[in-house]
UniProtKB/TrEMBL annotation:
UniProt keyword terms in alphabetical order: Amino-acid biosynthesis, Histidine biosynthesis
Pfam families listed in its UniProt record: His_biosynth
Coiled coil: none
Provenance organism: Thalassolituus pacificus
Listed name of the protein: HisA/HisF-related TIM barrel protein
């Protein structure tokens, strides 16, 4: 069976990592706090990938984010995807130059689809992750600009992204974000027939059982959590052990 992935998502702004609940942000700590509380030297034993998103729209803060990204990459031996404020090829190139293996785009998919196409052409589909912020319950809708602007129906946007040839979809439920109540699988009803693009489920995981439910779903290729407190300390490693004990289709790193 093809192995699935466990992903940890970090939200960054102005030198700090943040906890998000329904896209309301709370500062938690800086990079030293992160290293101390998540045993970063061994985090690659717990997760398959790391996603780091810069939420700061102040362009003068970009160098600080790039330096933080580089420092983080130096402490973990797993693939890292980075995004936030990717409005140019130059910004995308800077993220890759500072250690990112993949690029995460969201607003650009609406406002600059030609940029997304160029990045796919330059770096390949496997390098591109399209993040979708969506909510329901009726007429599932997608949003951009950190969930501030409505952009239409989820089904239509998925078809648009398929046409852009992105390599993965990061499907994030706004109404479950940071709640720890579990994922909302309603979004999968909007997935077009014969869908081939890998889906990362995000928004709502607060326990290993939530991760397990996602990994069991045939349409889902990876389960992500951004919940800094529910998986603090060795919580991610414990979650992976529990998932493997339940025969979740994850890689066993000690094999």
């Amino acid at each position: 069976m093809l192995k699935k992935r466990l992903i940890f998502t970090l939200l960054y702004k102005n030198g700090s990592f943040l906890l998000s609940r329904n896209f309301r942000l709370q500062r938690v700590g800086d990079i030293q706090w992160l290293f101390k509380n998540y045993h970063f030297e061994t985090i690659s034993d717990a997760i398959d990938e790391l996603i780091v998103l810069n939420l700061d729209d102040d362009e003068t803060k970009i160098p600080g984010f790039l330096n933080t990204l580089k420092e983080m990459v130096g402490h973990c031996m797993i693939p890292v995807a980075a995004g936030g404020q990717i409005r140019s090829v130059e910004m995308a190139s800077a993220l890759l130059a500072h250690g990112a293996d993949k690029l995460v785009v969201n607003t650009a998919c609406f406002e600059q689809p030609e940029l997304v196409e160029e990045l796919v052409s330059r770096y390949g589909s496997q390098c591109m992750v399209a993040s979708i912020d969506w909510t329901g319950p009726d007429n599932l809708k997608v949003f951009s600009h950190s969930a501030a602007q409505e952009q239409g129906l989820l089904h239509d946007h998925l078809k648009r992204l398929e046409g852009l040839n992105v390599g993965e979809i990061y499907l994030n439920a706004i109404h479950r974000d940071g709640t720890g109540q579990g994922y909302d699988f309603d979004a999968l009803n909007a997935v077009p027939n014969d869908w081939k693009v890998p889906i990362i489920m995000a928004g709502g995981a607060g326990h290993s059982s939530h991760l397990s439910q996602a990994l069991e779903h045939p349409l889902i290729d990876a389960a992500a959590t951004a919940n800094l407190f529910n998986f603090v300390g060795k919580g991610l490693a414990s979650a992976r052990r529990e998932l493997l004990q339940c025969e979740a289709p994850l890689a066993k790193f000690d094999d």
